[in-house]
Amino acid sequence: MFYADDSGNLDDGWIVYGWIELAVARWDAVLAYWLTFRKRLVADYGIPTSEELHTTALVNGRGRVSSTPPSRFVRNGVTLWKPFGREVALRCLEAVRDCPHIEIGVCFKRSPLRNKAINQDREAVYSSLVALWDSQLHASHDFGIVGMDGDGTDPIYYSAHRALSLSTRRIIEDPMFHSSRRSQWTQIADIVAWSGFTHLNPHAGNEFAWTWYGDYLRHLNPLGDPIDMA
Q1: Distance CA 192, CA 172 (A)
Q2: Given this model, what pLDDT does residue 124 score?
Q3: Count of the separate structural domains present in the chain
Q4: What's the mean per-residue pLDDT of the chain?
Q5: Which domain holds residue 169?
Q6: Torsion, Cα of 25, 17, 175, 97 (10° steps)
Q7: How far apart are CA 9 and CA 16, in angstroms?
Q8: For 102-130, what is each residue's pLDDT tens digit?
């Protein structure tokens, strides 16, 4: 199983994908681990298990995910959402770091294209990623399926899968699309993708997270660093 999400900044040419991967036989164990972690977030932060954890919203203070935040994040009746969200994001990274049976990956391209034209490079990057997964599955004599965050309306994801040779492909079917509001898997992939992008493109506004990829995720990536798909 591959669960992927995109990140980056298309206005600045950054195309980034992050993903987690796991054996089908471990799917239930990993989900049980993550749901146990989500129950700890209920106890510690008042965040319901069903609430979406979106990294960008959390770290920028836009993620109003709790109706009962801990008192240390409340000043004069006002919730300090940015410190709250960043602490929650760190807890999520710790959970991914310690999660059994998974590996992660990040790939990217810095495109010179802009506006609609950048979709050419988006498709090329995703097609290369699917080919990489397919090659990996060939080497392990296995088959795999991809889950993506989204509503299934972006055609680049279908074309990348259907370009694989039917007689030899190991990635089966088109990608499965999941709403991140309902899927724990795509929320985990979002954490990976966002942290990978911040590692690749550090700027002053995200200085607090410059080391997150190295501190929490690099050891889960068989290749170590993000892959440049240029």
Answers
A1: 24
A2: 98
A3: 1
A4: 97
A5: 2-36+102-228
A6: 20
A7: 8
A8: 999 999 999 999 999 999 999 999 999 99
